[in-house]
């Protein structure tokens, strides 16, 4: 459904991604991990058309996203970037209404159908009771739910999330990841998210892509690829790999380096 084809991106003389190709099946949930600066966010920007690669293409159902109508593409693909902020006077409802702008009529006017979609999105992330609150007064977890509701209001087929748990406490991190997984399963939204926590990636994503040296270093189910050798090679960390038998997923305990 979503394909990155031979993507190469450089910032000046620095190559960040070189000849990267990845396919994301419809309804899949993928985590992208790697060291800081390896190109995770850059890849998401390219796949959302926020950044044009020097070489390669991104296809949605076989058609280049760079040649698609902007409003039509926004009805199918949504991205939540790092550190986004809403205007100070925006309420939660007004923020979520922004997700309906790709559907808006003449002059940006929203219809009852649009407001119904906003109500569904608020309910889907369990913040309908916060709809009249200014976004800036929300807790970190509530604010992230509001942004995800805005994406849901777009009714997208694909959702790209760049570090959706950044700056959240551990409880809120797991709440957001459980929400993302639930939306992926219940609505069938193809989801690609950048994460830093390997245990969270292994627990919530059915597939993990590891970036290193400007390209894809490993790609597959967490239990198959997230080995002690990979953690040492990519992150410089010695770790024990254990199995959470209840969840059926691996988890990692770092060891002291000598």
Automatic annotation (TrEMBL):
PROSITE patterns registered for this protein in UniProt: ABC_TRANSPORTER_1, ABC_TRANSPORTER_2
UniProt GO MF annotations: ATP binding
Domain ABC transporter: 2-238
Domain of life where this protein originates: Bacteria
Cell compartments where the protein resides: Cell membrane
Membrane topology (UniProt): Peripheral membrane protein
Keywords for the protein's UniProt record, in alphabetical order: ATP-binding, Cell membrane, Ion transport, Iron, Iron transport, Membrane, Nucleotide-binding, Transport
Name used for this protein in its record: ABC transporter ATP-binding protein
């Amino acid at each position: 459904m979503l394909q990155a084809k031979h993507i190469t991106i450089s910032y000046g003389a620095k190559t960040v991604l070189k000849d990267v190709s990845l396919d994301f099946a419809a309804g899949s949930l993928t985590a992208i991990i790697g060291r800081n600066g390896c190109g995770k966010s850059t890849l998401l920007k390219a796949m959302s058309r926020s950044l044009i690669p020097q070489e390669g293409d991104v296809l949605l159902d076989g058609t280049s996203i760079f040649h698609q109508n902007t409003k039509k593409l926004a009805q199918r693909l949504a991205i939540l970037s790092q550190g986004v902020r809403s205007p100070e006077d925006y309420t939660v409802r007004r923020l979520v209404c922004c997700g309906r702008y790709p559907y808006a009529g003449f002059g940006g006017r929203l219809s009852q159908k649009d407001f119904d979609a906003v109500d569904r999105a608020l309910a889907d992330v369990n913040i309908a009771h916060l709809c009249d609150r200014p976004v800036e007064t929300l807790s970190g977890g509530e604010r992230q739910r509001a942004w995800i509701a805005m994406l849901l209001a777009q009714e997208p087929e694909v959702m790209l999330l760049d570090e959706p748990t950044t700056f959240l406490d551990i409880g809120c991190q797991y709440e957001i990841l459980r929400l993302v997984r639930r939306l992926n399963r219940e609505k069938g939204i193809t989801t690609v998210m950048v994460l830093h926590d390997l245990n969270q990636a292994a627990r919530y994503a059915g597939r993990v892509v590891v970036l290193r040296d400007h390209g894809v270093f490993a790609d597959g189910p967490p239990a198959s690829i997230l080995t002690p050798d990979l953690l040492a090679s990519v992150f410089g960390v010695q770790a024990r790999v254990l199995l959470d038998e209840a969840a059926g997923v691996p988890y990692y305990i770092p060891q002291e380096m000598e």
